[in-house]
Amino acid sequence: MIGLARTAPTWINMNHIQLTDAMFRVLRDFIYDISGIFFAEDQKAILESRLQQNIKKRQLTNFGDYYYYLKYDRNKEEEIGLLIDTITIHETYFFREKKQLDTFMDEVMPELAERGRKNGRIRIWSAGCATGEEPYTLAMLFLEHHDFRDINVEIYATDISRAALAIARRGVYRESSFRAIDPYFQKTYFTKEETEFRIMDKIKQPVVFLHLNLYEKERWGLLPEMDAIFCRNVIIYFDAASKKRSINAFFQKLQPGGFLLLGHSESLLALSTDFVLRHFKHDLLYQKPPDVKPNYFNLSDMNK
Q1: Which contacts qualify for 21-30: CB closer than 8 Å, 24 or more apart?
Q2: CATH for 3-89 (1.10.155.10, 2.170.120.12, 3.40.1080.20, 3.30.450.40)
Q3: How confident is the model at residue 4 (pLDDT cuts 50, 70, 90)?
Q4: Fewest C-beta in 10 Å: which of 14, 88, 112, 222?
Q5: CATH number, span 98-301
Q6: Which of these, 28, 4, 194, 168, lies nearest to 89 by C-alpha position?
Q7: Residue 118: exposed, middle, or buried by beta-carbon count in 10 A (0-12, 13-18, 19+)?
């Protein structure tokens, strides 16, 4: 998951560079145009604080020069990458939102296995994968599930941050990433290296990491159609237009009957009536309607 860095330091030193209201709006619109991430008016101080080191690193003295650098300098692509890393955080850990994962493993995966036996494979997308804990969690679940021993599982993991993806590909994690994991998984699928833990190659094997900005829908053609999409705690940082654009694109990218798993603080209300809400024993998940519908609750009924 990638989320906005929501807090700013309470202190300001004498070298602090001020962000004017006018330049805040310019930078806010620029960030929105390249990422879909939206800074509200009351988040000006956060943006001002977060970009201080970026400006000073380039030996600039004001936000106007920094904006010019982002737009026109020959190193602008590198700086835009640093900008994205600066304004976002990579708060994630293994087996996050366990109740949802339990539902996925116990009730959704058997359905996917049935589909996989027909198609020969299952494809999962971890959208906004940050430093890789989510896709590797999914890889462990599929490896553990007996129904998938003869089914090819492909997990596509994408993120807007190249720095986060570099950590994900390396697959080495500190103790903080394991705060919700069953000790069995940590012992079985990781090797300890001093104060860190390296994930085993058999968990890395089904995961493909790609740099992808969810806001650039035209690049979604890099990905095949999916059987399930995890996009948890990402779209809460988008405005309504960006949310709708992403959700509609997810719908198109899913196979009929495919599942969309959002964070528990996220909802499709007022965003999409295309998905249906599937009731499981302990959770609710969104699903693209299959060719033949069982007893589903249609979201359009909630939006009337």
Answers
A1: 23/63, 23/64, 23/67, 24/48, 26/67, 27/51, 27/63, 27/66, 27/67, 30/67, 30/70, 30/71
A2: 1.10.155.10
A3: low
A4: 14
A5: 3.40.50.150
A6: 4
A7: exposed
